[in-house]
User: Fold this.
Amino acid sequence: EVTPEPVTPEEATPAEDGSEGWARSLQMTRIVVIGGVAAGMSAASQAKRRSPESEVIVLERGEHVSYGACGMPYNIEDPERSIDDLVVMSADTFRSKRGIDVRTRHEVLSIDPAGKTLTIWDLADDREYSQPWDRLIIATGARAFRPSIPGLDLAGVFPLRALSDGAAIKEFLELQQPRRAAIVGAGFIGMEMSEALRLRGLDVVILEREDQVLPGFHPAVAEAVAAELDENGVRVRTGVSVRSLERNGAGLKLHTDSGTEVVDLVLVSAGVRPNTALAKAAGVALGRTGAIKVDDHLRTNLADIYAAGDCAEAWNRVRQDNDWVPLGTTANKQGKIAGANAAGADLRFAGILGTAGFKVFELEVGRSGLGPDDLAGIDAVAVVSKQRSKGHGSPGSQTITSVVFAERGSERLLGVQMVGKAPVALRVDVFAAALQAGMTIAEVEELDLAYAPPIAPVYDPILIAATVTRKKLAAGAPTAAAP
Ligand code: FAD
Assistant:
C-alpha cells in the first residue's frame, strides 16, 4: 500500500482545469463509488481520467455495470435481441481498459464517515470485508416502488428497474408465452412497456389509480396518449386501485376496487424511490424530497462524501429549489461532476429543468420545466394550443398539442408539455433552452427557428404556442388550477 506523499499547495502542479494543487496532492487517493450504473460509472470514469494515479473502486451489488436501463422496453419488444446488448461496457473492460477496480456483486452494508471505511458484503464469496476510502461517491440510484398489495411476490409479477428485471421479463415471455398482461401504473415506463408488450403480441390493460394516464401531465396531453393507446388496442382503466393478486390456474387474477382482471403477466411500474437508507444511516442529510441533499458541487453534508444520480436531489432552475427528478440525463451529468470533484476539480452542476421525453406507439411526448402539479402558490396560466407539424401542403403533417405554462405579470415561461405524431421532444428542447435563459413568452415568440415545408411550418409550433399564450395572458386567461 502506498501512502500519498504530502505536498503543500505551492509544490503541487496545477490540474488541467486550473484547480491548483489538487492534481498532485491527490496522488494515490482512494476514490470509492457505490453503485455502478449511469451516475456511478460516469463518476468513476471521470475520477480516473482526471487523476490516473488515484485508485478508483466501484462497488455494485448487481451483476452488471454501465447498462442503458432506458433501452429496456425497446430491447424487450425484440425477441431477437439479447438483453446484454444494453451493457455499454463490461466490468472486465472497465478493469482492463480504464484501470478502474470494478467489483460486481459487492454490496455496501454501511458507511463509516469518521473512520472513512465501508463495510462490504462480497456476495460471490459470501464474506464481509472493510474498505478504506479517501473520497466517497454515493450513486445508489433508485428502486421500483413496491405498493403494499398482497400477491406481488407471485411468479409472473415483475418490476422493471435493473437489467436483471428486464432479463427476467424477457425470459418469462420466451418460456411462458403469456397472452395477457396488466401494467400497474401509467407513468412513462408503463407507456413504453405497453407498446413493447403489444408488439410481443399480448393483450394489455393498464391500471392507474389516478383519473388519467401520465399523472403530472396536463389532461390535454394525457387525453392524446389515452387515444393513442386505445387506437393500438391497449385497454386503459383509470381511477382504479389494485387491491390484491392471486394465482388463477396458470395465470394471475388481479382484484381491483372495481372488478377483476385475469392475466398471465403483471408489470408493476408505480414509480421509483431513491435508495438512501445506506447514506441516511451514516448521517448523510436528506433533502425536502427524501433524496440525498447535495450542493452545487454535489457534496453532501459530510466531508469528502459526494452523491449523484437518482439517489440525489438536483437544483431545479425554474423552481429555484432542490428537486428530485430521477432521470438518466441528470445521473450521467451529476456522476461526471461528482467524479471530477472527488478527483480534485472545482466543477459546478448547473441544475435541471426536468426535461424529459418518451414515445408511445406513434406519439412523441415531452416536457420541460413546471407542470400542472407544480404551480401551487404561483399565479400561472396553462395555455393549450394545437399546431400543424409541417408546412402548408406538405404530406404527413400532424397535429401537435402544446401546453405552455407561464407566469402572469412577469409573463415568464415556466414550462411546456407537448404531444404529437411528429418531432415533439426536440421542440421541447428549444423550450428548455428558453427556460434556462429565463425567457418571457414574448422572447420565445421572437426565436429564429428553421423552416422548410417538410420540416416545419413557417411559424413553428413553438412560435405559435408562444403567440397563443401571449394573447391569452393579455386577455386575462384563468389561473391554472393548482392541486
Ligand atoms: P441506478 O441506475 O438505479 O443504479 C444504481 C446502482 O446502485 C444499482 O445498480 C444498484 O444495484 C446499486 N446499489 C444500490 N445500493 C447499493 C449498495 N448498498 N451496494 C452496492 N451497490 C448498490 N431516463 C431518461 O433520462 N430517459 C429515459 O428514456 C429513461 N428510460 C427509462 C426506462 C426504464 C425502463 C427505466 C427503468 C429507467 C429509465 N430512465 C430513463 C431512468 C434512468 O435509467 C435512471 O435515471 C438511471 O439509471 C439512474 O442512474 P443511477 O446510476 O443514478 O442509478
The mean pLDDT is 93.
